[in-house]
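This part of the workshop introduces the protein records we will be handling. An example says more than a description, so a record of this kind follows:
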Amino acid sequence: MIYYKTEEKEKGFRFYEPERNPDYNRKTEAVFAQCNGFLGIRASFETKQLDESRGTFIGGLYHKAGVHEVTELVNCPDVTEFRIRINGENLRLDSCRLTDYDRSLYTRYGELESRIGCEMKAAGGVTLTSRRFASVDNRRLFCHQLSVSCENGGILELSTGINGQITNSGVSHFDRMEARVFEKSRMFLECGCDDGQILSVMTVCSTGESRETAAFHLERRGIYQDFKKELRPGEVWTIYKYTLFYVENGEESSEKTAGQTVMEMTDALTEAQEAGFGGLNRRHREAFDRFWDMAAIEITGASKEERAAVEFAEYHLAGMVPWDGCSCSAAAKGLTGEGYKGHVFWDTEIFIMPFFIYMFPETARNLLLYRYHGLAGARKKAEEYGYSGAMYPWEAASSGEEETPLYAAIDIHTGKAAKVWSGIKEHHVTADIIHGLISYYQATGDREFMERYGCRMILETAVFWHSRAVWNEEKGRLEIRDVIGPDEYTEHVDNNAYTNYMAYENVKAAADVLASWKHPLADAYREEGWGGRFDQFLRCIYLPEPNGEKIIPQDDTFLSKKKLPDIGKYRTADVRQLILKDYSRSQVVDMQVLKQADVVMLLELLPGRFDAETVKKNVEFYEALNTHDSSLSLCAHAEAEAVIGEMDMAMKFFRQAMEIDLCEGYKDSAEGIHAASLGGILNCILRGFAGMKTDGGTYRFTPHLPDHWQSMRFSFMDHGKKKTAVVTREGTEITCTKII
């Protein structure tokens, strides 16, 4: 069930909390986060709560706090808190009686709005109203408006500023902080990491009162401005707060003259004050409207909740990717929380990138350039494991090196931390990245990218797969042994079908490159005999074929394992991974049970590889064994069911996927939204329901619309041309609207 209520506005939707429930504080902080691709700020209350997890995240700002720590996305200083005191009494929502409560996210523009009324002993009825947004017009800018009114009047004391005491679950990443005030108006906090990265935060507050006396105070790792105001009964007092975030690495900071960053931030904040909150909001909305001009998906016949969920997914996807550079990528939780340390997974290329390939290919290019710049780390990992070429990390951050923690959850039988095998054995990520690259090239024809970056990535990863395969003398074939496929309940298996087929596609792409690319690098590969080696790999690699019942074996042993007798208990459980409460991982590995789509993912990514009957039988067979304990599974099965025409099942999974971040489970999403699932929702709509696909030529559509949907309308980019598709049950009409 969806927990949040929705309201349709003239443009877009508003999600709002049905009531004040402190259990949902952390979940709502993530779900209602304000994100613009550079900056993500969790939707914590203006006043401090007993249960909260304040978070400010900047794309690409990673740091490792010590040799025994893991590199993670840094939780930066907080600028959203306001300490409020009226007639000597502190305003605390946890302890006062609420008389009014409305808190919402306007997903069309990523604006958080709230109106909270409460009763205070010393002040009577008090109302707080606020609006805030991370600007899309200037992605370094965060704007916040707060109004306070008091029924009986009284003395208002308010403090707000920059709180540098924020940590990543107790770990501080800044070893140096310097605070000061410029011209009795602008608060400034410079935060330094031991690797040379510098975060500069500057904020200015305005109340519109020209005779206002400025008062400031320092706290450990923080600076605050203090206001004192006598409120008349019913008077509304408003404060505007504008904050800029600048990040420099060691090289950038050394190149700048002293005070240059401060001057740039000062000029930007001066201009922001002159524009005012209303003017900045208009610019922000105009910039966001340009996004929606391309991204809007109109679905006639869909319910309000379905259309709102689509907008929610697109808003958060827009807020997690690097629009202006390639130094970072889309993290598994976007910029909404500390979950998974802010690391980048295969989620990006397989679940998130397709939306951007279709609608914003220049941003998909940025995501691929991030992987190109990670080649050094991929080469290092391959060498460490005894392989050749480039082997991409399972979890990546800034360096391109492997960042997966070695240990995580507790084994229920041993009581010890269980080893995380994904970073060691889940090698399919390398082929996943190349699949994303090939998909980008097929949709764009971006030859310049391939010449400068893509062909090298394809060749170096193909060399890895060649070194990864081993020869089975008895069976006369190459095999890929001891891996983990997408299904993470099945570890240390040989010939995972997904991995083998995706490796084949990776090496096939390399063979095609050597057959056609005229470049010194390709010449070197040809001279070293790689053309013949790739051809031999393609001839000899074992690709599991459907058996007599048309079932593709997930790996060499999966079909011979015992079935889980009470799998229904885990498929319908309210909590994820309940099976690990009853069985150890070593026990689960020996059962026919899946955490998420595996063979089904293969069928989606290589749609023309198998006939329709084989696809249908495998989707149905593996779904019955799937607990869907991964947030990646429901959207994948929704798309798969749509492709085979099982629309009741498709809509069942689609609705469940819609609810992953919006559901009633207050612990779900508390550490951040599920980025891949949101991307998967859009993949289901575009590839599943609209039946959209291309192999480098023209786009083709095979619609499978849900029964209650009449039509879909959306835009997409096709080799530099903006086109619009109108999809109905009868077919699809394509018009070219602009050449870009």
